[in-house]
What does this fold into?
Amino acid sequence: MKLLHKKSKCCGAKIIRFGGRRRQCIVCERTWRVHSAKQGRKASRKQRNYLKKVFHQGFSVKQIALHSKLSVAAIYKRFSKNLNVVVGKKRIIRIRGQKLILVIDAEWQYFKGELWTLYFLSAKSIDSETVVVFDPVLEQGKENAASWNTIMHRLPISIRMRIIAIISDGVRGIETIAINNGWIIQRCHFHLLSMLYKMRGKRASTSGKLIREEICLSVRRALVETSETKLYILSQRLIVLARDDKCPRRMRMAVRDFLRRLPEFRSYLTYPELNLPTTINVMESINSFIRRKSRTVNSPVSWHKWAIACTRFKSKFTCK
It folds into this structure.
């Protein structure tokens, strides 16, 4: 067997020993260490309570610096190192239950004129009220069904195979993903009612005020009505109200979309045994928590790191 000796990277010449751990190139006489060590002395004390103070106790990094002998820059540097350690660790997610419900939402933000979106996913068992939040995924651009489809396929196969339903705020194209995977769709009631009540108008002199009020009340009743006869009457009444000249165009489109997707808003009544949530407010709580903690970030990478740390320090929420 022919023995091949390693040559130096600088000159490609023969390497000789130069002490215990060092080697030397015989041409340029450059030396180096075989197992390079980190420069400087070892840290005498590792600060691990910075993250706990920020994410559990509600302090900001600057507030920690006020009660420390170190400068704000030094505290930020140590906090950044701890943040990188937490984000860099591999996370193992275990969710009990044979049937799982997937809850999704997204948060977007502009950085230097470019739009970035964080995709949030969480899952819960049909027998539990605790939602487990996954690490968010950062993508450039507007929220879309193609990105959601890619992200969902990255979920662990042991979790993805147990999903039977998905709770969403009505992302365009999400119904195609649900149909392809054989999932039940439950659309968020809160987002629908919030949109309609914003279009209702606050002033009594608003054009078509009575029409708008009746539409809001009829939609609210249709979401919870258990009688098929009364539901049919409400649907017919909404069709008439949407055709009225005093009904705003945006509200007319919202009503027609609601009637078109009415079964998806009432899945929780069709499948009562699954205990489907009717809103994605649990995801709104997660987004609110991340917004409070990461309000000073100025880059998408930092935003992503803070979001991952938030979900890992507060990975479980209650969803009834």
Notes: The chain has three domains: 50-88, 97-187+279-320, 189-269. The mean pLDDT is 86.
